[in-house]
Amino acid sequence: MRGAAGSSTRLVFHLIPHTHWDREWYLPRGTFHVRLVALIDDLLDRLKGDGPFRAFLLDGQTILIEDYLRAHAHRAADVRLAVAAGRLQVGPWYVLADEQIASAESLVRNLLFGTADADRLGHRLDVLYAPDAFGHPAAWPALAREFGIRAGVVWRGVDGATAAAGDRFRWRAPDGREVFVWHLPAPGYEIGAALPDAWPRVRETLAARAGGAHVPVFVGADHHAPHHDFGALRASVAAVERGGDVRVSRLDECLAAAAAEPGDLPVVTGELRAPGPAWALQGTHGTRAPAKRRHAVLALWLERVVEPLVALARRAGGHDHRPVLDEAWRTLLANEFHDTLCGTVSDVVARAAAARGDHVTALARELTRVSLLALARHDPDAAREDSRAPAPALVLWNPAARPRSGVTIADVTWFRRDVLVGPPDGRTARVGPGARAFGLRGADGAEIPVQILGRRTALERIDASRHYPDLDEVDVVRIAFAAPPVAGLGVVVLEPGPPRRPPAADGAAVVARSLVNRYVEVALEETGALTLVDRATRTRWTGLLRVESGGDTGDAYTVRAPERDRLARSTGPLRVRRVAAGPLVAALEAGWRLRCGRGAGGRRRGYVDLRLVVTLHGDSPVVRCLLELDNQAGDHRLRARLPLGLPGVPVVAGSAFAAIERPAVAPVPRGRGLEAPVPTAPAQRWVSVVPSRPDARGLAVLAPGFFEYEWTPGGDLLVTLLRAIGALSRGDLAARPGHAAWPTALPEAQCQGRDRVELALVPVSAGALARGDALPRHWEDAFLPVRGAWLRDARELRPAVSDATLEGAGLVLSAVKPAQAGGGTVLRCYNATGRAAGGAWRFGAAVRAAYRVRADERESVPLVLEDRGRAVRFTAGPHEIVTLMVE
Asked: Of the candidates 783, 817, 835, which is a domain's last residue?
């Protein structure tokens, strides 16, 4: 219909007053906050009238209203009046996040908070508005539909072929659900910022791509206040617009009219992150990589530890900590604003984001502690007031929704002496024996041997609500042991027992510079790389995770390798030390220095000191790798290379609620486009390269959350460790001519100093990959192990029953959380396969009712409970997200 709309069809141009508000960017939030308050003050006054300025789009994110009302709480009634009338359009997001770096559950929380905020104010914009994200995941349409949204707006990531087909399309998610999408033209949301003078050019651009009669014209730009007289603006445009109708409209009205027009639209599937009419700016995935890694770990902590514990503790009769949990999430989400999470911000903004991360860490740590105490039914105040001798206990909690046992690591503490705080008052410090030989004992009396991994002296503080903290000097002993079975999300209590050594049979061992168990052999090469042998098939990989440095003189948005740049690769020599000898845990440590070569003018870039700890558990094929960096080099990109020798095989990477297959990408020059395609790509939690032959084995790389990788046509996988760059934007890049932001020096984006990278390697078959849940299980075992909490002051614990087990081939746990409202608990999984799957949740204690809901926790459908309230069944369609609410 595009040609007809551009010629014979009378076009209706909908002027959409808006602003795009980067909460923080090249300037700190405080600077933009002052301007935001003034803008909304004026906006509220203008929206009270009956003139043509009838609605304003506040950028699709409710955090701006939150910021405004924190400063001007007295105008809350004015805000509610404008929003309820549909004149000030807010939501559905809490923040405009980077959608590729944020986790799937972060995106859900983002929409949950944005929807809740908008509902409290009276009305939500029912358009998934994403005007500036640097790409979009394939599950984006499903995410929209999970919140009752059927239309969206995007800009970046739409490729040239899709853009050439018109300005609208239907985007189909992996589960088959679709949304109507209008994609912004090449100038983006700024296309109408210079109206009315620019109307001839604007009209030509929009009419040439119009796929229907109704065409939105965004009138606004970054941090722009609305036009001073929108009635005059509309009249000026209408006076020169002879072939169409010009209206001032709301975005949802315009898109509803456009979606209702007859005619077939192109259908798009998969992710949107290609360069096209707009920059995709995929180089942001490696910028300020240490901050991204920390953010991913915090998101994982909230999603899979804090939220489930808060929900289970509340169900067990503990305190309702949802308000504080919400504070933790809102603080974390503030760091997911696209510029902030991408690292494309000034150094002062990056430091502010780090401080917010510190606050999330403190909240998460305390919520974890008090919720575990509630589940274990341990009261520190009662323990302090109990005259009996304590009975120390190790409380195990399983964050996976499946039974687990086997090698577990925990810290236990033994009293040495009191540390008295306060002025001297005649008190005498108690003294104890410190650590002694010990084992563990299960509830059934079975003796559990332990392997000692390390010992140190530290201070431990035991807190209680009615007493001063009790501070002691203790011996901290790190142990490994074979844990008894722990039900999904369940709790088990172990007590100290007589010392016993674990048997060596079928365990892990150190042999020279190698680690061996019955699944794999892994050896340290002289370069610091690894050789890995899959013992089931004798498949052998060499040179894995060899660290290399190449020059990078780009900016925060785009990588630029200098001409005739030479890679500097790790060559050793290594300093090797045995860390753990087995049989439960075997580990080796290696240390070395990488000199990073020379940069412009022959100047030395510097060096990176590296420490690699490789760990193998006796009962797992997963090779755990901790790489500690001390970067003292600049203008370079540090990566770990894995030469897998599988050219032509596609890579499969984790993404939001799905896995996505991508081919190898060779670096290419920019050509005629605005931006050169990049060979790097984003991954969530894992990436795997597996031949399709049933008897062949490939390799998967696992990480706690987001990371960037490159898959080369020659069969090498590279994992980005950091990009050390010093400029927010450069205007002299061949891959992307023109400034992507205001030029700003970023000395702290050189990422100098210490950092740590957690990775894991595991051999995997094509069959295991097709099952959908095999890699997520390995990932859970690596980064969400059974957690142990040592209670030195315990007294006869009787933990609550918290078991909840997910059953169903191909189903992957995504969330266990308290409901946003009411007393329910939300359980979410997704089907990681392309076939329908039968699923069930089984509970250790009966539930009263169960409902199937959307991710927004609405539109509930009752489900039949079985086994006296201890089980509920459901069916998950191919790639479907399934959310249940139980009470």
From this structure: 783
